[in-house]
Amino acid sequence: MFFVFSKQFRTEEKIFSELAKKIKESKKITQSWDGLAEVYKLDTCRIEFISATPAQILVYDKSGKEILSLDCEYDDADRMQQARSHWFSGVLADARKRYEKDTGKEKMRRATAKIKAQKEQERHEAAMVKALDRIKSL
Fold this sequence. Notes:
Helices cover about 60% and strands about 20% of the residues. The protein is an alpha+beta fold and about 140 residues long. Helix 1 (about 1-25) packs parallel to helix 2.
């Protein structure tokens, strides 16, 4: 029985590690809410984290087909459930950090673009005023 637990433990640990890797390597990540599920859409898949009791993680491919559904509720008596709960929390934290990092970069890009556009408009207006003054002096 111990061998089965160890093999199951290693397999599920690899699954959660792969999910964390997908989150890290994804070029684009979006966050939304679907009822109680916190949904993250990546380049290659969609991950739903349901933190309410019972905690669950659901993974779907791009076409919407379910790949994985795991109960990640913490249980004092079950070491495997404790590990799942820990991994669930870690992957969810990774997804949140990545999303916040990307949205922070996007806000900076928009602010920079807005400042550049404003400066360009001011330069354009100054050039128009200068041209008007030249025309008047002719």
